[in-house]
Amino acid sequence: MKRTIAIVGGGDTSEYHVSLRSAAGIYSFIDKERYNLYIVQMHGLDWHVQLPDGAVAPIDRNDFSFRQPDGTKVTFDFAYITIHGTPGEDGRLQGYFDMLHIPYSCCGVLAASLTYDKFACIQYLRAFGVRVADSILLRKGQYIPDEEVVSKIGLPCFIKPSLGGSSFGVTKVKSAEQIQPAIAKAFDEAQEVMIEAFMAGTEITCGCYRTKEKSVVFPITEVVTSNEFFDYDAKYNGQVQEITPARIPDALRDRVQRLTLAIYDILGAQGIIRVDYIISADEKINLLEVNTTPGMTATSFIPQQVRAAGLDIKEVMTDIIEDKFN
Predict the structure, then answer these.
(1) pLDDT by residue (tens digit) across 45-95?
(2) pTM value surpassing 0.90
(3) CATH of the domain at 309
(4) CATH number of the domain to which 148 belongs
(5) Are 90 and 112 spatial neighbours (Cβ–Cβ below 8 Å)?
(6) Which of 23, 60, 152, 286 is 20 to 30 A from 146 in CA distance terms?
(7) Is the separation of the CB atoms in 133 and 109 below 8 Å?
(8) What CATH number is associated with residue 11?
């Protein structure tokens, strides 16, 4: 009997539409002969499922079910969470599914909430010896003088929301007069803002996942953009060159892949994650951030890396789903 899968997208941040694109990507990747698939869209208290005829049906939040037009109740065996932002990336939705005993695709409440907070995550991983940039955290209502940013962090630097992703609200700051406008822009996206030192080098990203039976680490992607940094336009509007596998020495590749798996274990991650790095000129590996619900459109990094590894994305999706039932 086929399992019924909810692909959960949307959310309550600026990443809403990016998330829906990932949901469509995952829908195209999962084996439809093996699973019954429905895309569930969430925005605030509007939770609904798209039906094959184009109609929508509301989700009953008491048990995460819905009813077909004929009144038949449909419940889900598994949820593939692809919300980039709250409530799907920060642990809230994971806690909800835990209480309903519905297995899901990604890491649990603690790992999700920790990795969603960029500042907390890098400070946590720093304690395990992972190299990260110097940074300062501001919470809503706090003020920091320009000269303190310059003296403690230096210029250029990045000012960005500490919560969220997809480069919304991120500014590369090159002069002191840009600091306060950049902080205000970041606060428009989140209640916490991170001021992070600039790290020169080559940007790369590496995905991986583990099941009870195996560990899979994907080929590394090198990110090359003529933009100031890997911003929204670079990510989603083609203003970037993504080279998989990355043009780095084999020994460095192996170190990055080992570190990616180590970070996976330190965090207690589940499902597919993607870890972004800057490689310094002296081949030092510097962590940028950890993505526990990475983008999954056809052109996103993870599908690219799956193809470069010679793997079938359909089989990878089956691995992720079936691991929760083994």
Answers:
(1) 999 998 988 899 999 999 999 999 999 999 999 999 999 989 999 999 999
(2) yes
(3) 3.30.470.20
(4) 3.30.1490.20
(5) yes
(6) 286
(7) no
(8) 3.40.50.20
